[in-house]
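Something for you to look into today, if you have time. Just paste the record in under my message, thanks.
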Amino acid sequence: MGKRYYCDYCDRSFQDNMHNRKNHLNGVQHHRSKKAWFDQFRDSAALLFDEQMKKPCRKFLQRGVCDFGANCKFSHMSEEEQYHLRRMLEEERQHKEDSEDRLVFGRNVDEWLRKREKKQAALGSKGDPTTKEDTEEAETEIQIPQQLLSIPDLPPSLLPPPPGGWRVKVVSDWG
C-alpha cells in the first residue's frame, strides 16, 4: 500500500503522491473545509460586520434550513443573534477600557508612593521640620491622587490629613 496523506481540514486521507496532493489542495472541498476551520477563530467584530453586510437568506428564514449551509452567500444569523453579538462586543470593549483604566490607576498610585518615599527620605536625612515655614511647606506639598481618594474605606494611614492638621489629645495622669 504506500504512504497516505491525511488532511486535517477535510478529515480524509488519500494516497500521497504529488498529483493527488496537488489536486486535493486545489480542490473546492479542501478550500471550503479550510475556510470553515479558520472561521471558527475569527474576531467577533469581523464576523458581525460580515453578517451585517449580507442580506438575510430567505430559505433559512422560511424553513430554518438552507441547502447551501455554511457556503450560502446570504446571512443565516437572526436579528436576535446579531443583537447578542453586538452586546458581547460592547461588553468586551468596556472590559478592555476598564482594565486599561486600572493599569493607569496603578501606575499613578505607584508613582505617587515613590515620590512620597523620596520626600520622606529627604526629610529624614535633614531632620524633622521644626520651623513653621517647613511644616507649611510640607503640608502644601501633599498632593494625593484623586483615584486614591475615590476608593471607599481607605485605611487611616492613606487618608490625607484634615485641614489644620491632626488633633492631638493630651491625656494627663496627674490629676
In short: Residues 117 and 131 are 22 Å apart (CA to CA). Residues 1-41 form one domain. The mean pLDDT is 79. Strands lie at 4-7, 12-15.
